[in-house]
Amino acid sequence: MAAPLADRLRPETLDDMVGQRHLLAPGKALRGIIDSGRIPNLIFYGPSGVGKTTLARIIARKTDMRLHRLNGTTASTADIKAVVEELDTLAAVNGVLLYLDEIQYFNKKQQQTLLEHIENGRITLIASTTENPYFYVYSAILSRSTVFEFKSVEPADIERAVERAFRFLETEQSLSISVEPEALKHIATACGGDVRKAINAVELCTLAASPDAEGALHITADLADQLAQRSAMRYDRDGDEHYDIVSAYQKSMRGSDPNAAIHYLARLLNAGDLPSACRRLMVCACEDVGLAYPMIIPIVKAAVDAAMQVGLPEALHPLSCAVIMVCNAPKSNAAANAFHAAMADVQAGISGPIPRQLQNKHYDGEDAERKGQFYLYPHDFPGSWVEQQYLPDAIKDKVYYVPGNNKNEQAYKAYWDAIKKPGRRDGTGDK
Question: Quick one: DSSP state of residue 239?
């Protein structure tokens, strides 16, 4: 069985790689490290299909060390011990280079097995991961390694790789292949920055195309669209891409940018993640619009209920309306700020006994110096308000809520400033 085209076409040198110019262009730090020939422990972090494994293989060929390749999804502690056992043999006289793909699947014990040998330099580790290494890689290994972040490859760079793939297949299979410019562009764009996906789409197009009378293949834009149409969606509900999209979605609504918010809503719904789209929309309505337009909360709740009831794809209608409404609404985080300030005091132990007049009891023990609850019922007073202490003594003058600078909250403030004016503070009404 032939290897996939992406493996057969894997670059052999740094100059053959596409993308990652921020790491591999002449003068960049990682390029300098590789060219020096003295390789430290490295961790490559980034989405799949952007060159992490390819670069690790290129580095391995540039060293004289014994190369071992393990994959975190299948390797065990026994596999690591087998690598360690080679350290004192002639085969590893120059040390061992261990390439560990998907290190995030190694548990803490497996990672610790490597620690001593990484520290003394007998094993040089090059690890790759699609997840944030600061969350998934054991801290002791992180402290002995340098992390380089790989980015999605730009369509212009991928287009060069796609052209190269078609030319490679022409030579390999002795075919004549013509490709419409729009087909090239679509494959390069639809893969979402993943070179491997783009190369796989090239192979699929070649397999699916029907030869003409002369045996030549013609790759049309329509064929490319059929075979690459969903490749652009990078999404894993438990991975970084999920959290990046939902974060951008909420921040776009908070930032009052309806164009960006609708874009990220489309990405969530394209991935079928209706619950996340609804949850973040509700959070934003309460947290970021809040008291500036309180009616946004039941409106958004109704839209979310409708979306969950009708399901996809029709959910786009109530959700897109609600997202744009949240974007265009005035914003206030005064309620959230008040809560966080109060919570900070509670967690710091800044509190005290609840004032007697607020307690849920109507009798006093013998030790009470002043007997009686003395609660003043606000509705018995003008404006349904009377001054009395509600906070504990230790924080009785604490201010948590500061009205936001918006029409609603300023109207509330003006109303209560008038009700609570100094002449009314003895509970007897205006003087």
Answer: S
Question: Which tokens sit at 322?
Answer: 């609600």
pTM tops 0.85 = no
Which residues does 225 contact at the CB level (< 8 Å), separation at least 6?
A: 186, 190
Give dist(CA 211, CA 187) in Å, integer: 20
Peptide bond into 313 cis (omega under 30): yes
- The closest of 166, 108, 115, 174 to 138, measured between CA atoms, is 108
**E strand or H helix at 127:** strand 123-129
pLDDT, tens digit (0-9, with 9 covering 90-100), for 216-248: 899 998 998 888 755 445 555 555 677 888 999
Q: What does the pLDDT look like over 2-58, one tens digit per residue?
A: 788 888 888 888 888 888 999 999 999 999 999 888 889 999 998 888 889 889 888
Supply the angle between the helices 316-328 and 258-270 in degrees, to the nearest 10: 150
In angstroms, how far is CA 183 from the centroid of its own chain?
31
Residue written as tokens 């959910």? Answer: 315
d(CA 319, CA 342): 33
